[in-house]
């Protein structure tokens, strides 16, 4: 038999824990953004074209399925001619 594992219960926040102040939060955000590897202009253009082509193909597939299934249902269930 496999063992059943459950997720640990979330920790309750103690009143003694201090919240992060806005300035510390801003500094941490800036530090994290410096670690990001930003795409080059060529990579960005390539990614944009790939996503655009994918979305257009998916739109065509969904449109054709909608048109085909709509006509099929109207034919099957005696819709208007």
TrEMBL record:
One of its GO terms (cellular component) is plasma membrane. Belongs to the SecE/SEC61-gamma family. The chain crosses the membrane at residues 44-65. It is a single-pass membrane protein. The keyword Hydrolase does not apply. Pfam families: SecE. One of its GO terms (biological process) is protein transport by the Sec complex. This is Protein translocase subunit SecE. Component of the Sec protein translocase complex. Heterotrimer consisting of SecY, SecE and SecG subunits. The heterotrimers can form oligomers, although 1 heterotrimer is thought to be able to translocate proteins. Interacts with the ribosome. Interacts with SecDF, and other proteins may be involved. Interacts with SecA. InterPro entries: SecE_bac, SecE_sf, Translocase_SecE/Sec61-g. The keyword DNA-binding does not apply. It comes from Nocardioides terrae. GO terms for molecular function: protein transmembrane transporter activity. Essential subunit of the Sec protein translocation channel SecYEG. Clamps together the 2 halves of SecY. May contact the channel plug during translocation. Keywords: Cell membrane, Membrane, Protein transport, Translocation, Transmembrane, Transmembrane helix, Transport. It is found in: Cell membrane; Membrane.
